[in-house]
Amino acid sequence: MTATWRYGRPALVVLLAALAVGVPLWLVAVTSAKPQAEAIKPNLDLPRHWQPGGNYADAVSQGEMLRGFLNSLLVVVPSVILVLILGAGAAWVFARRKSKLVSAAYALCISGLLLPPAVITIVMELRQLGLANTRPGMIAVYTGMYLSTSIFFMTGFIRAIPLELEEAARIDGASPQRIFWRIVLPLLRPVIATATIMVMLYAWSDIFYAFFVLGGGERATLPLNLYQVASAQLYLNNWHLVFAYVVVMSLPMVAVFLVGQRKIVSGITSGAVK
Amino acid sequence: MADTVVRTRKQPPARSTPKGVGRLPRAAVHHPWWFALPAVVVFAGFFLLPNLLNFYYPFTNWSSYHADIAFTGLDNFRTIADDGSLLRAIRTTLLYALLAALFQNGFGLVLALLLEDDSRFNRFFRAVFFLPVLISALATGYVFRALLDQDGAVNSVLGTDIPWLGSTTWTLVVVTLIHGWKWMGLAMLIYLAGLKGIPGDMLEAARMDGAGPWRTFWSVRWPMLAPAVTFNVTTALIGSMNTFDIVQATTAGGPAASTEVFNIYMFRIFGQGLYAQASAMSLILFLVVVAVAIPLVVGLRRREQTL
């Protein structure tokens, strides 16, 4: 290893991180603490007058942030739980059984990794089912959309678990239900962490499908609210509020990531790339 | 994903189960179908069915202006072909996907190579470069609009007056760079996983044979990274054809519709109440994705095997 690389690499890493990640985050942080007059032309200067508290309070009151937060939780959490449990059940069957029918069902179920969801006709279907503009409708759409991801990751993972573990329990008289809940699910922990993060990430950030299924109004999720706040920006010049919103919306995902960080990496390693 | 699809097909035929009376095959007892059923039902009901319906509604006059829905044949397709939005959306989306995949993978691979060894320093910076993945795409779009606006931070730092998001030629490239920025952390993680999977003695052997860093990279590591490349390129290319948030937040399809990808068009036209027309575009997106995905998956898979 040459000396230039030895000292050049860390220097390059720090420089890249500062420019590529540091600058945008800095902009968000300082702008979210500026009064409106200073924030009209977003720049990297420190606020001359600090008012983070006021901005965040405004984002909460004008941006309906608390309601948005609750709405997001009410659709994202059930979606994630359904995706994980239904996905794990399917993955278990897909990984362990071998027949043409199982292969076909598996291929069909992971086709969602490649195929785009038909968002316009989803609206039509939900209207006929009476689920348009409802949370159950949104949950069903997210679950259907992200099941492919969890089934794909989990099936790959279960295939690597020795069957003997299940057989031992079976000899002791455990039923399939018991084996699934007591043996398979606990072993899936790393890949469950990965799938949780991925699905949460997608669903928490989603605005496209939420726009079609939920629309604005009472049940609007955080990203829909952010979109409202930022669309008003054209007339109000409220970058300070937009970025206060961005910070609050991003923090839960950062927290989830920090908690599950190590498992995500091992989950991706075992699930996606073998 | 590609490899699993193919692999399942190549599996040996099912173990022959005794076709006796009164005895279920072992698999049905130990791994009963009903564990998979709820997932299959939800997936079929809320993913496959809408995609099937999408082969019907584009041929109707479904909109907010009629109470009933009537079959109208190819009218919607004729409309979007005649007003130029069809070809433009295809071209823009494909170009977007290509550039976004290029940037996302390029950045990700460089970061993975820079941060390969497991030191505390590297682990910290991996997390730093992963941060953009955690910030929603919509928020990412607004951050870069504030940076790149003509009145924005970049121009004020550089002392320039460049309309970064106002060029009908270059704005698409700028937006795909932002897309690459947002997802580079995920590509990096997958490349890191791929690099970790390369056996140490293989690199050792290359070094013993006198291979320098470049030679080792091109002859040993790059070929060994093939599965990671397959996964990354496929997900990036196909995923970015479904892009919406970043484009909507930075340009909303402009200037002069030069960044109007499929989903932006659907969003706009649906907002005008022309549901069937939006649905027609959605069907075209579906067909374009299929047309890109199949050769891509088959081709990359074949490449993996020959390397």
Key structural traits:
heterodimer; A: 274 residues; mainly alpha; B: 307 residues; globular; disordered N terminus
Can you characterise this structure?
Chain A has a single domain, classed as MetI-like fold. In chain A, 78% of the residues lie in helices and 0% in strands. Chain A has helices at residues 3-31, 36-39, 52-62, 65-96, 100-109, 119-129, 135-159, 163-171, 176-187, 189-205, 208-213, 222-236, 239-271. Chain A is globular and about 70 Å long. In chain A, 49% of the residues are buried. Chain B starts with a helix and ends with a helix. The relative contact order of chain B is 0.14. At the A-B interface, helix 1, helix 4, helix 5, helix 6 and helix 7 of A face helix 1, helix 2, helix 3, helix 6 and helix 7 of B. Chain A: InterPro entries: MetI-like (IPR000515), MetI-like_sf (IPR035906).
SSE blueprint:
The complex is a heterodimer of chains A (274) and B (307).
Chain A: H1 3-31, H2 36-39, H3 52-62, H4 65-96, H5 100-109, H6 119-129, H7 135-159, H8 163-171, H9 176-187, H10 189-205, H11 208-213, H12 222-236, H13 239-271
Helix pairs in contact in A: 3-13, 4-5, 4-7, 4-10, 4-12, 7-10, 7-13, 8-9, 10-13, 12-13
Chain B: H1 2-10, H2 26-30, H3 37-53, H4 75-82, H5 85-114, H6 120-134, H7 137-148, H8 153-158, H9 171-196, H10 200-208, H11 213-224, H12 226-240, H13 245-250, H14 262-271, H15 275-306
Helix pairs in contact in B: 4-15, 5-9, 5-12, 6-9, 9-12, 12-15, 14-15
Membrane topology (chain A): Multi-pass membrane protein
Protein name (chain A): Carbohydrate ABC transporter membrane protein 2, CUT1 family
Family (chain A): Belongs to the binding-protein-dependent transport system permease family.
Element order of chain A: H for helix, E for strand: HHHHHHHHHHHHH
User: Which percent range fits the helix content of chain B?
Assistant: 55-70%
What is the straight-line distance between the termini of chain B?
A: 19 Å
Cα Rg of chain A: 23 Å
Helix count of chain B, per DSSP? 15
Major sheet details of chain A: none
Fourth-level CATH superfamily of chain A:
MetI-like
The oligomeric state is: heterodimer
The counted number of beta strands of chain A is 0
Family (chain A): Belongs to the binding-protein-dependent transport system permease family.
Membrane topology (chain A): Multi-pass membrane protein
GO biological process, one term (chain A): transmembrane transport
Transmembrane segments (chain A): 73-94, 101-124, 139-158, 179-204, 239-260
